[in-house]
Amino acid sequence: MTGFNPGLEQLSEEVDREVQPVYRLIDERALKNHAKVLEAFRQMRVSEFHLKGSTGYGYGDRGRETLEGVYAAVFRAEAALVRSQIVSGTHAIALCLYGVLRPGDELLSVQGEPYDTLGEMIGIRGRENGSLREFGVLYNQVELLPEGRLDFAGIEKALGEKTKMVILQRSRGYKWAPSLGTGEMRKLIAFIKNKKPDTIVFVDNCYGEFVEAEEPVEAGADLAAGSLIKNPGGGIAPTGGYVVGKKKYVEMAANRWSAPGIGQEVGPSAGCQRLLYQGLFLAPHIVAEALKGAVFTARFFERLGFEVMPGYCEERSDIVQAISLGSPERIVAFCRGLQAASPVDSHVCPEPVAMPGYGDPVVMAAGTFIQGASLELSADGPVRPPYAVYLQGGLSKEYVRLAVLSAAREVLRSG
After folding, report:
1. DSSP letter string over 89-114?
2. Residue 23 belongs to domain spanning
3. 293 contacts: CB under 8 Å, gap ≥ 6
């Protein structure tokens, strides 16, 4: 981390003092979420023997079953599927879509096109074998209004006889638009259920867990899913994903995860069990640290003259901080600066490349202890207008502050 800049150091000190009131609000919410998680552990009578792993088929794994009970309690759901064999958020989402949808059913997105990695799975981009489209699942989408808000009139018009599932994305993804908070989500779900009561509402909850006081199931969602190397893994879960919601739909996802007739009765927890428990227990605090890092980043780059979303004192419903940098060179510079301040692979120089599941070249910075663990601290962005970079995570607010200083130096050097 070379290139000491007194001006940036002074700005960092000023911003840190300025954002303290926002930090206190984050701490208050973290306390409530931590109390909720602690109560779930106590309710399920988590014991030392639950932290042990299993092998082979994993039959009778009480630790695995109890962990799923903890997740169901935390997320206020009827049931949960929590497995180390779920390799990503996209994988967890796929279990829900393929588990519930059947040929002739329609999947409706009401926030425009979903996150890039879902495009090929659904079949709206590319020609991958096994896409939902290839299986005869229909797809429709309603674009967001120009200011990034939901188009309720368009949604009402799009809800048709074949609409089986509406997919909601809590995070902003790679869109320059607000993320979806649980308050707006509750309003939207009530609107959908009023117009077509049999519609299944599924929420991609990645990056959203423990940011607010409530989760999607509490807002009326039937099913939600996410990755354990993001928020709920607390920065120490080495892999995994989860599905929560109504028992019927969780069972359908579990049948897709393994096989019909087997469902969630199998699945060894191996050596991951303790880390999955401990990660969930730590998650409200680590998410709070990531949120403080995002608040600092937003105000720091606002003071440097860049447009950010959300603003530093705006309400948040995910851990993602978007910064409009205005050029491909600045995106790359930001990621290089962040990577240089990472504890792992700080010597690596990020470059934009084509990546599986993405429609444009993407540049990524992630010097993480767990590969791809966004909650540790990462930044990425597609090389396309408006040339924004998306920062997420941070195991400590201090780490984020140091890394953002490094990123800012490189951005300013790039011109």
Report:
1. HHHHHHHHHHHH--TT-EEEESSSS-
2. 6-33+281-413
3. 377, 391, 393, 394, 396, 397, 399, 400, 401, 404
Residue whose token pair is 């926030």: 111
**Residue that has been written with the tokens 């009131």 in this structure:** 21
Give the CATH number, domain containing residue 94. Answer: 3.40.640.10
> CB neighbours (10 Å) of residue 136?
11
Q: Flag whether the pTM goes above 0.90.
A: yes
Take residue 243 and report the two structure tokens written for it. Answer: 């599905």
* Same domain as 76, residue 137: yes
Residue whose tokens read 């001006």: 7
* Residue type, position 160, single letter: G
Measuring CA to CA, which residue among 270, 248, 241, 265 is closest to residue 95? 241
Provide the residue type at 381 as one letter: G
The count of structural domains within the chain is 2
> What is the bridge-based pairing of β-strands 106-109 and 138-141?
parallel
Residues 247, 119, single domain; the answer is yes
Q: Which residue has the tokens 């509406």?
A: 166
DSSP-based three-state secondary structure for 115: coil
**Could you tell me if 381 and 404 lie in one domain?**
yes
What span, in angstroms and rounded, lies between the C-alpha atoms of 306 and 355? 28
Span between the terminal Cα atoms of the chain, in Å = 19
**pLDDT one digit per residue (tens) for the chain, 415 residues:** 445 578 999 999 999 999 999 999 999 999 999 999 999 999 999 999 999 999 999 999 999 999 999 999 999 999 999 999 999 999 999 999 999 999 999 999 999 998 877 989 999 987 889 999 999 999 999 999 988 899 999 999 999 999 999 999 999 878 888 999 999 999 999 999 999 999 999 999 999 999 999 999 999 999 999 999 999 999 999 999 999 999 999 999 999 999 999 999 999 998 899 999 999 999 999 999 999 999 999 999 999 999 999 999 999 999 999 999 999 999 999 999 999 999 999 999 999 888 766 678 899 999 999 998 999 999 999 988 889 999 999 999 999 999 999 999 999 998 7
Q: Quick check: is 38 in a domain?
A: no
Rounded to whole angstroms, the Cα distance separating 410 from 387 reads 16
